Amino acid sequence: MTQGEPEFVLDEARAQRLGFGEAVFCAGKSPEQIAAILGAARVPMLLTRLDPERFAALPRAQRDALDYDPVSRTAYSGDPLPGAGPAQVAVLTAGTSDVPVAREAARTLRFQGQEARLIADVGVAGLWRLLRRVEELREMRVVIVAAGMDAALPSVVGGLVGGVVIAVPTSVGYGVAAGGHTALNAVLASCAPGVVAVNIDNGYGAACAALRVIGKG
Question: What's the predicted TM-score (pTM) here?
Answer without folding.
Answer: 0.91
